[in-house]
Amino acid sequence: MNLYDDMIKEIIEQLDQLASAESARLAEPSKAWRDVGEHRMILGSETAYELGGQSTLGLSGCFYTTQPLLLPQGVYLYGSDLAQITGSCSYARIVFARLEGSDDKEAMYRKLREIDYVRYHVHPEGYMARISPVSQREPVRISRRVLADKKMCFADIGHMYLERYQKISGVKNVNVIFVTHRDFDYRTLERKLGRAEQITQSLNHILTSLDMDCDTCSLKKVCDEVEGLRELHFGQK
Prior knowledge:
Elements: H1 5-16, H2 21-24, E1 47-51, E2 58-65, E3 74-78, E4 91-99, H3 105-116, E5 127-129, E6 140-143, H4 144-150, H5 154-166, E7 171-179, H6 186-208, H7 220-225, H8 229-236
Parallel strand pairs: 2-4, 3-7
Antiparallel strand pairs: 1-6, 4-7, 5-6
């Protein structure tokens, strides 16, 4: 599973230009903040600010590997934490997951989707993510009351996600990365997230479709450009 490796390396290089991995890694929180267990609405009048709101970008997505490319397991922040943010700003939540290798490609694909779907099952109090899987957008509303009362921070949120990922069998290492830094190139990340989703869709198509005519396939361009996809395709044949 090396289809996403180049993008992982490029994103880590982008992040290293903002801060060192050591200084960006967050300590484990006290876990005083709770997951409320279900999606809860935060009205505009209750909102302190929105990550990815107004004319800014709010992004999220996952990248996968079976190689030891990743940072040490944990939660990372590049930019300001929640208590230091005073208004809407661009934001990204990036997940890198290292998996055990497997010859069962269908099982591997299901694992990728299981990891991706974690985002629908984490609901921190006072933190309302509005997920758009088609566009890789994930703007987040932050509750004014909870921000003040609970002293919420990205360490709390990140470890809620991390605990979920660690429960998935075959996951060896996970990085949950939050970015709010104003100098980060969010547009480049947005393109990489779109490409990662195209690769995952191509995997699904290769594994499930009876139509193996490359000339008529809408995903042909992706297979042509991503090393390893075409080999996987012909292996399925």
